[in-house]
Design brief:
The complex is a heterodimer of chains A (about 110) and B (about 120). Chain A is about 0% helix and about 45% strand. Chain A has about 110 residues and is an all-beta fold. Chain A is globular, with a radius of gyration of 13 Å. Chain B is mainly beta. Helix content of chain B is about 0%, strand content about 50%. Chain B is built from no helices and ten strands. Chain B has a six-stranded mixed sheet with strand order 2-10-9-4-5-6, with no helix packed on it. Chain B has a four-stranded antiparallel sheet with strand order 1-3-8-7, with no helix packed on it. In chain B, a hairpin with a 6-residue loop joins strand 5 and strand 6. Classes of the chains: A mainly beta (about 110), B mainly beta (about 120). Chains A and B meet through strand 3, strand 7 and strand 8 of A and strand 5 of B.
Amino acid sequence: QSVLTQPPSASGTPGQRVTISCSGSSSNIGSNTANWYQQLPGTAPKLLIYINNQRPSGVPDRFSGSKSGTSASLAISGLQSEDEADYYCAAWDDSLNGVVFGGGTKLTVL
Amino acid sequence: EVQLVESGGGLVQPGGSLRLSCAVSGFNFRSYWMTWVRQAPGKGLEWVANIKQDGSVKRYVDSVKGRFTISRDNAKNSLYLHMTGLRVEDTAVYYCARGETTGYYWGQGTLVTVSS
């Protein structure tokens, strides 16, 4: 059971907008910033969003992040087939004194 | 170009030991916290440990405390994870990543299999 809660799966058609939620608590997302990672099949995770809504260079602006209270969200607009991957949220947890991850959301592009 | 290359994984029996290495290039290694994250087969990501730039602060997930030791050699641009008392549940791909709480860059991972 992961500390951060994500839906196990999400799906959309090409061109659609999809949102993935990440629910935490006051000790993690509620008091620290959230990050999002994309893991394509058979590859290492890649940073997608950091400090809630910042994109590393090279990440398309189709990807956006937001945070409200103890929850964070990742939105993907203009969905493309290459976006099919696992997506993980993460945040520092003050109580556990470590990074906690969500269980991951498998995104399928129909 | 930033590169993080893990090595040292392999098959080990329960109770055994292994030392993982992460060779870094393309950025000033001594200026950054570094982190180990693992992923069991077919499972999600789990943070394992991180270490401050000068090695003075080390943090671990509870499940590895007392068994794993994170260290670094800034002169060699290298990060290490010394694992002892290995258990079947430690079987995973181990990734090194740059950063304290944000894995800005990741290596390709090295597989550790604990089995008799």
